[in-house]
Design brief:
This protein starts with 6 loop residues before the first strand and ends with a helix. With 450 residues, the protein is an alpha/beta fold. 39% of the residues lie in helices and 23% in strands. It has a six-stranded mixed beta sheet with strand order 3-2-1-7-19-18. It has three domains: 179 residues, 3-Layer(bba) Sandwich (FAD/NAD(P)-binding domain), CATH 3.50.50; 148 residues, 3-Layer(bba) Sandwich (FAD/NAD(P)-binding domain); 94 residues, no CATH class.
Length: 450
């Protein structure tokens, strides 16, 4: 048992947890900080598609926690959390170790929800981690190779069909990426790229319905048809069962079957079981079992405990989307208030400013809705998306290394060396201008806080 005095424990190494730890380090927080996560690596999920396609490597998208936290003073513990006792202020780990805390940060995120669909957990691939990306890559390449070697046309069609469940942002980004990537892979093996099928099944009537991505729906629909192969859309199709070689769904009151050797699950999340098991009253939870936190990101019943990210709902604003920019800003707010608490200063309400939405729509295309005011799409949208996420990468050193590599490979070599130098040079300057403008706004905001 370790000394519980002046020790802050952060449970969960996602965006909120990691950025809380890094902000505490930069602020010279006077207490020891321990970050606990079951994985060895942090996963920058918005760029996981770039890792999957080979445009970025593991060091860039899924760096090790030890590398990111080197020199920060934050202690990283790789272990699974077994239970959390809020009354005793203890975090019990699967290894048997137990950590007491003076302050706790809950940043456990969410888990995949398969909604009881038969076979979904066993046969559908999620896309959350490096391991998921590697498993999907291996499976798809095996399917392509088998398709190339079979003379059975129906079997080949099944092997070359990918079903993606869910028409939210994750499903759209996955469908668009695979509709560009798979034809390229298959053609490289000697196959006909036109035989590749990417089918999107959505339970609702519209894609991107009811969230911050509403404004990008029209452009997304157009871009899905412009990929190397068109994305087939099955609307109002509710998945009922997933098999190794097919997916069953209900549409217009009828049960139908789609032969597909690959099913990718991108719809639905539920609250982490550890959050559900906490000794927090129902009056301080949402219907989805997420924790309701105060404006200062604290649990009403346990003010020494802070929480952020997907596992919480802010009383004053329950409509915040579960995105990287929200988690980043919540982590910064939590860190500020932890230091204020340690120094007996006044805590400040967390202010989350949504700067727009970004949506990947193919290997070299994206849509960016800037401050919900104007939309940029195509290759320029792709550059803005890349630049924005590179700006959010953890630690200045990691950010600087990757940004330099990206500017060299993505902008200077690819665009300025192309035959269309004039147009792309203008586009590049536009991107730089937007990035600089965003940075200036951020600096002004920081100055107002200080």
């Amino acid at each position: 048992m370790n000394n519980p005095v002046y020790q802050t424990v952060i449970v969960g190494g996602g965006f909120t947890g990691l950025f809380t730890a890094l902000h505490l380090s930069r602020q010279n927080y006077p207490r020891s900080v321990i970050l606990i996560d079951r994985g060895e690596r942090f996963c920058f999920r918005p760029l996981l598609y770039e890792y999957f396609s080979g445009d970025m490597d593991a060091q860039q998208v899924v760096p090790r926690f030890e590398e990111l936290l080197r020199g920060s003073g934050v202690i990283f513990v790789q272990d699974s959390v077994q239970s959390i006792d809020l009354h005793q202020r203890q975090v019990q780990l699967a290894s048997g170790d137990c950590y007491n805390y003076s302050n706790l940060v809950l940043a456990l995120g969410s888990v995949t929800n398969y909604f009881g669909v038969e076979g979904a957990k066993e046969y559908a691939f999620p896309f959350w981690t490096q391991e998921n990306a590697i498993a999907i890559d291996k499976h798809l390449r095996n399917c392509l190779q088998q398709a190339l070697n079979t003379e059975d046309s129906e079997k080949r069609r099944q092997l070359l069909t990918v079903a993606i469940i869910g028409g939210g942002p994750s499903g759209i980004e996955m469908a668009a990426s695979l509709a560009d990537l798979l034809p390229h892979w298959y053609e490289g093996l000697g196959g006909l790229k036109e035989e590749v099928r990417v089918v999107l099944l959505n339970q609702g009537k519209e894609i991107l319905k009811g969230d911050a991505y509403d404004l990008l729906r029209e452009n997304a629909l157009l871009e899905l048809q412009k990929r190397a192969v068109k994305v087939e859309m099955l609307m109002e199709a509710k998945a009922t069962a997933v098999r190794p070689d097919s997916i069953e769904y209900k549409r217009d009151g009828k049960l139908e079957k789609l032969l597909a050797s690959t099913t990718i699950w991108t719809t639905g999340t539920s609250t982490n079981p550890l959050i559900k098991d906490l000794a927090v009253g129902d009056e301080h939870r949402t219907k989805q079992d997420r924790l309701e936190v105060t404006a200062t990101m604290q649990l009403p019943e346990f003010p020494e405990v802070f929480a952020g990210g997907d596992c919480v709902s802010m009383k004053d604003d329950s409509s915040l989307p579960p995105t990287a920019q929200v988690a980043y800003q919540q982590g910064e707010a939590i860190a500020h208030n932890l230091k204020a608490l340690a120094l007996e200063n006044e805590l400040k309400p967390a202010k989350v400013n949504l700067r727009g939405t970004l949506l990947k729509l193919g290997l070299e295309d994206a849509a960016a809705n800037i401050f919900n005011t104007f939309e940029v799409k195509g290759e320029l949208g792709h550059l803005i998306r890349q630049s924005t996420y590179l700006d959010l990468l953890p630690t200045p050193v990691h950010n600087s290394k990757l940004r330099t590599k990206w500017l060299n490979e993505e902008v200077f070599q690819r665009y300025l060396d192309s035959s269309n130098v004039g147009k792309t040079a203008v586009q590049t300057m536009q991107v730089v201008g937007i990035a600089v403008g965003r940075k200036l706004l951020q600096m002004l905001g920081d100055n107002e806080k200080s």
